[in-house]
Design goal:
single chain; alpha+beta; four-stranded antiparallel beta sheet; 5 helices
């Protein structure tokens, strides 16, 4: 149940516009490798399902802004389509999905990362603990 509560808290924080203050991971038992793996799974699953909005739900708030007239969901829908159009794109994402359970996870304070063969964003798979959940960040 702790993971479900963290996901619900994350959804509430997103609905409030990310207004909740960041929590220090060291002070919060929810900032674990297991919850980081859950966040990574949500991102990869969203990409496989061409669900830009689902991917945006796991992005750190500054990454969700509209850019050049395109919403976060539109940008991630395009990113997903581009990845899946590549001959090996879906296979790489499915490989990441399988790796998540055993990939090396590092958690240091409010920051965490997971070592995946195909990084999730800008060559990295970094997450930030905020509003009681892990959010993908640059």
């Amino acid at each position: 149940m702790p993971v479900r509560r963290s996901l619900v808290a994350c959804a509430v924080a997103l609905a409030l516009g990310g207004a909740a203050a960041p929590l220090a991971a060291a002070d919060d038992a929810g900032a674990t490798a297991a919850t980081l793996r859950t966040a990574a799974t949500r991102v990869v699953t969203a990409l496989l399902n061409r669900d830009g909005a689902g991917a945006c739900a796991v992005l750190n708030a500054p990454l969700t802004a509209t850019e050049h007239g395109r919403t976060c969901a539109q940008r991630w829908d395009e990113r997903s389509a581009t990845l899946l159009a590549d001959r090996h794109g879906a296979a790489l994402l499915r490989a990441d999905l399988r790796e998540i359970a055993t990939a090396s996870v590092t958690v240091s304070g409010e920051h965490g990362s997971i070592a995946l063969s195909t990084p999730l964003l800008n060559g990295h798979s970094r997450f930030y603990w905020t509003a009681n959940c892990w959010m993908l960040t640059r």
